[in-house]
Amino acid sequence: MKLKFHDEGQGVTSIETHFQRPGLACCYLIQSAGEAALIDTGTARTTDNIMQLLALTGLAPSQVRYVIPTHVHLDHAGGAGQLMQRLPEAELVMHHYGARHMIDPSKIAAGSAAVYGDEEFAKQFVALLPIDERRVIKAHDGMRIELGKRELHCFDTPGHARHHICIMDQQSRGIFSGDTFGLAYPELTTERGPFMVLPATPTQFDPASWHQTLDRLMALQPACMYLTHYGSVENPPALAPVLHAEIDAYVAIAKPYAGTENPVDELEQALWCHFRKRLDAHGNRQEFAEQERLLGMDVRLCAQGLQAWLQSAMG
Ligand SMILES: [Zn+2]
């Protein structure tokens, strides 16, 4: 894979993970005073590029102190095992609910194969390597991490997943939000700004928690959000209301299908109807095929996630 990265300023670099298509998922390198941390890892196919970037930046592998996947979903943490093998001094920081899946990845592998399908899973995820328990720090809400001259604060941020943390960097006042602050693909940005998409990925979509989490993140008065999908976005207070509205819209879309057996195709159609209206209102002029190329997988995953939510909320 070709190394592709972007200097986000303030000692933060985003790195293309080459997950599914360019521009879909990135991860981040943060540096301060000769120490470095990685936020999210991409998959095992990203590891070589991360090591190349370290070399290019003049950092030895031993200078990376922390690898911090925001949550265990494999576009965020799938390469953690491979990366930890190449970074001898690094410790892995993971939400305390997710840590055991990093130490023994067999369960998460089975779950992801179920979500993505065996063929796609084999193509994207390579082998998931276990990480030595002694190198894993279980993150809890409010935990502080010193990195050179900067300080990172971890927050427990349920909504997208129960095992999700966001990391606020005190220097840039930016928050590494994983999937919690939604997705914004650059191709969908118009003169109205980034097009925010709420990823209700299976199986832990939790509307009430997500609303609370967004309020908590906004109370921190972040200057920007470093999204995994894709890159940094400015002016979070202007974007948070869109995400709140999307949580409510998803619930309204899903509710009529409560009690319906396997409504995933109907949910997908209803979501597309919703997204087409939103894209149009956002000034998007792309052909539907292009919109589908950019959002198709996410809409499908949202439909599956809403179905899982209906089952758990009603069950
Ligand atoms: Zn996720």
Written description of the protein model:
The protein folds into two domains: 240 residues, Metallo-beta-lactamase, Chain A (4-Layer Sandwich); 62 residues. The mean pLDDT is 95. It contains ten helices and 13 strands. The protein is α/β, with parallel strands linked by helices and 315 residues long. Strand 1 and strand 2 form a beta hairpin. The site of zinc ion has 6 residues, from loops.
Quickly list its features.
6-stranded mixed sheet, alpha/beta, 13 strands, single chain, binds zinc ion, Metallo-beta-lactamase, Chain A, 10 helices, 315 residues, 2 domains
**What is the level-2 CATH architecture name of the largest domain?**
4-Layer Sandwich
What name goes with the CATH superfamily of the largest domain?
Ribonuclease Z/Hydroxyacylglutathione hydrolase-like
**Main sheet, how many strands, which sense, barrel?**
7 strands, mixed
Low-confidence runs of at least 5 consecutive residues: none
Radius of gyration: 19 Å
Beta-strand content estimate: 15-25%
Q: How many distinct beta strands?
A: 13
Domains (count)? 2
Q: What distance lies between the first and last C-alpha atoms, to the nearest angstrom?
A: 44 Å
CATH class of the largest domain: Alpha Beta
Question: Which compounds are bound in this model?
Answer: zinc ion
Number of helical segments with 4 or more residues = 10
Could you say what the CATH topology of the largest domain is called? Metallo-beta-lactamase, Chain A
The ordered H/E elements are: EEEEHEHHEHHHEEEEEHEEHHH
Shape: globular
Helix content: 25-40%
* Oligomeric nature of the chains: single chain
